[in-house]
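Board notes (copied after class):
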Amino acid sequence: MNPSISAAILSLFLFAQSVLAQTELAPEPGALAEVDRYDLKLREAFSEAYGKDVDLRALLLPSFSPETALFVDKNSRVVTLTPKETSVWSHEHRELVREGSIKVTDLNGRRIPPDEESDDVKRIPEKIGDIGMIKRSRAIPPELLKTVREAWEDALIHSTHAQENEVGLDGVRWHYSAWVRGKGVLSGTVSSPNEDTIPSALNAVAAALIDYASKEANESHIEAALWNYKIATKCRARGMAKISIEKPPVVIPVAMSVLIANTAILPEFSADNVSLEVALQRLTAESAKWGKIQDYKGIQFSADKNLNDLKVNYKAENESMKSICEELAEQVGADLDFKETEIVLLKRPAMIK
């Protein structure tokens, strides 16, 4: 990353970047192989994700939050790494300030010299290797992993340079790489792709895997994202990608997934009516996304002010959602009352640690 460009960007407190109008990933010479100090630091900080036993990975680089590495280890476990207290970019930003490439000023416009660094900046480790990581992992069934790998390979094999650029703000940069039989290690990248594109669908698969590792999603969510990826590839001249998923999976609504499979109920779920209202609106909006590939519609969530009952109102053409909720509820000891067009949570399940 050019220091002079970085200085101009950060002086405005804005991470602006060139967003590629991509219909496929853009090929890279290698996984973070650019001659760029920040990329080299990423390779060092997330070295576990680039180990010899890892042949499938993704790196998520948001503009204003810590980076995340996603990979599958030799034991077929989905693994994520995220810095605990400081991002890798914070380390790089401090170096750019110290060498004078970025100017930091106080409220009066006076340049703050490096010897007046804030306590937060002083707490950033001097060595990249000393940045602590939050590590999460979770086993993934072999057949599901096979389909994930097929999606990775499909996207990387079809990578191509974008034909036009658009200026975007607050971008998110993704890097993908995998070992592909007969082709070696392939790498591709995308920055904040437009919705309804193949790279956007691939990002959704990666995001589902990240949530899966932290128990915020289940296998059905990954399957749904994979199906959406396959559908997104219909725009190709040769038709949809040949990945091993034949039909859209039945996905439990997000609200029930949170209550039954998640590590905790959403933070907004409290006795406070304002927070409760926000949480219910959020659940409704999120579940509507899954409704596009399901046989239910008109989904709505409600609860009493003490959260003794959570109601899921819906319209469905068959009993699929009911049967899945029943199965999951039985597994964790939840008590659900099923009516014609709604499900009522009578007893909260114990949260999985």
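Comment from the instructor: The domain at 254-347 is CATH 3.30.1360 (Gyrase A; domain 2). The CA atoms of residues 104 and 110 lie 8 Å apart.
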